[in-house]
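Can anyone check this?
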Amino acid sequence: MKKTTLYLSLLFGVLAGNLAIAQSPVDHSYKPLQVKLNEDGSKYIRFIVWNQTQLSSQFQTNGKSTDDGLHFSIRRARLLTYAQVSPRFLVLTHFGLNSLGASGMTGNPNTQTANNSSLIFLHDAYGEFAVVDKKLHIGSGLHYWNGVSRLTNQSTLNMMTMDNPGSGVGDARLFPWSTITTSDQFARQLGIFAKGTLGKFTYRVSANNARRSMAPTLDSTVTSFQVAGDGKDWLYTGYFNYNFLDGESDKLPYFVGTYMGKKKVLNVGFGFNTQPNALRAGYVDSTGATVYTKKEGVTFFAADVFYDAPIGTKGYAINALGAYYQSQYGSNKNFGGGGLIPGSGSIIYGQLGCYMPVKTQGIMPYVTYSHQDLSNTPNTSYELGVGMNWFINGHNAKLTAEFNTGKKGIANAGTNSRATLQMHIFL
């Protein structure tokens, strides 16, 4: 653990020193990659490209310490493009890959026959029509207009923390994305959505074909289980929030993580994700045949408060978010696993950060904490994160170092920890 932490600290220091020396009076301000389609620019195509690379190490303490060494990975490599072809029509396409490490690489990508980690895949592909400008937009396709919470719709371009909550050192990994890799395609749904802004109130709702039932339920009379994969089931999501101060754009579905003092935002929101026939189970009848009859719903809901605002007149800013998540797997309290929140129960999450300008750049130390009380384990679980952003050029070029530690809710659980350094660049 000490060795890994030292390596990450040294590397962060070397990179910081080298980049600081390389500063020059050249204009590094961000200019969107945009192609105008008419004279006034009201019709356009915009491109967004970003890469995130990570160096990390995991270690565990349970009577003795284990350290798995340093691992390099591409956390995200993405290309997003959208076109505003008229004031009433928008089309968006987004593709890329996630979490490509050495073990997921393919020696000859031409020979890939499975869903290997080095494959680029489709994240979003939808079209949108403005029925009533700003107040009601309806769209369809593979989309990210999710329910449950603000963090479920979080942008990966401008997060205050290094990554999404739920680093994996506690029970519930990536818990804001409550159905990730189960009924969806990596947090994206295939269906119809509506969204809009009515004064200070914003909303997003959707009805989607579930990729599959989330999983079989457990029951004392059940002898076998069925997981449907025919895409016939539907799930429904929604997220609603009220903006007390500055409004936020809902042109795209991705919520900003921190504005670094450029806006004054105070939002209260709540949301849900429900799939009525998510759980299916069967029993063996008198003839020996398996009969699948039982169907139950799965529901997730959350409430959150978000505050991001400048402090004083010297460029400082504060970021704070608190959220409560509840999961319910039908009448069964002991289901979960895979990409799902492991069990019915509740999760409380909070984050706090402070942006501090340093000449033309800035730093932002932060802390995160989640308390996870889930039925699948006898004890509660927790995750604690401490990190630091160094904004070399705002969110367009930044380094983030983060240390996570936590304990799962299983009996005699040890402490799990992870140290990570990330370089993030987007244009």
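Reply from J.R.: I decoded it. The CA atoms of residues 11 and 421 lie 9 Å apart.
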